[in-house]
Amino acid sequence: MDTWDAIRARRNVRAFSDRPIAGADLHLILEAGRRAPSARNTQPWDFVVVAERARLVQLAGVWQGAGHIAHSATTIAIVAPNATDPRQVGLIQFDLGQASMVMAIAAADLGIGSGHAAVADQDLARSLLGFPDTHHLAFLLALGYPADRPLVPLKRMDRRSFEDVVHRERW
Q1: Other CB atoms within 10 A of residue 94 CB
Q2: Do residues 114 and 16 lie in contact, with contact meaning Cβ atoms separated by under 8 Å?
Q3: Which of 18, 114, 124, 141 has the smallest number of CB atoms closer than 10 Å to its CB?
Q4: Is position 88 within any domain?
Q5: Which domain holds residue 136?
Q6: Shortest CA distance to 97 belongs to which of 84, 109, 121, 80?
Q7: How many angstroms separate the CA atoms of 119 and 75, rounded?
Q8: Contact 153/5 with Cβ under 8 angstroms?
Q9: How many domains is the chain partitioned into structurally?
């Protein structure tokens, strides 16, 4: 798939098949995240790869909307340093968004679906993943082959029209 097709095919996948992700494909997805741009090249992320089913089931408990994590082939836990300065917090969030999205697009390019999840229970996350107190689990990115339909460029999207979204020179 080329980049434009991967962007058009990427969708949030919440139901995954039992098919495992090949190690080489997972490496490419993680490498895409590692190469994501960040403010002042700080690269404020660490990725914890979780593929053990029992740990995925437990990890799904970090947020009420993360049930799909338990059924993923692999989930990437995106860990970030704690920050108190509002500007730094914003930059970290932006950078993590870039890393998350580039991994989701890389996955889609390989026919692998992804679904993100937020995190509420930091204590549970820390006990499962072992990251230090100086960091927090920011997001989860579940990966796996879609159970319902393969990833193909979407023709009909539930999106605002181009004209409603794009403003030229002024709103």
Answers
A1: 13
A2: no
A3: 18
A4: yes
A5: 3-147
A6: 80
A7: 13
A8: yes
A9: 1
Residue 11 lies in a domain: yes
Reported as type and span, the H/E element at residue 148 is none
Residue 113: phi and psi, rounded to 5, are -80, 160
Task: Kindly report the length of the chain.
Answer: 171
DSSP labels for 70-98? GG-SEEEEEEEE---SHHHHHHHHHHHHH
CATH code where residue 12 lies: 3.40.109.10
- 14 vs 166: CA distance, rounded Å: 29
How far CA 132 is from CA of 22, 97, 125, in Å, comes to 29, 22, 11
Taking only the tens place, the pLDDT of each residue in 57-82 is 999 999 999 999 999 999 999 999 99
Domain contains 164: no
Q: Edge to edge, what strands does the sheet with 113-117 contain?
A: 46-50, 74-81, 135-144, 113-117
**Residue tagged 């689990």 (tokens):** 137
- For the four alpha carbons of 143, 56, 46 and 91, in that order, the dihedral sign comes to positive
pLDDT digit string, tens, across residues 113-154: 999 999 999 999 999 999 999 999 999 999 999 999 999 998
**Domain-located, residue 64:** yes
- Rg (C-alpha) for the chain, rounded Å, is 17
Q: What's the number of CA atoms in the CB half-sphere (13 Å) around residue 97? A: 7
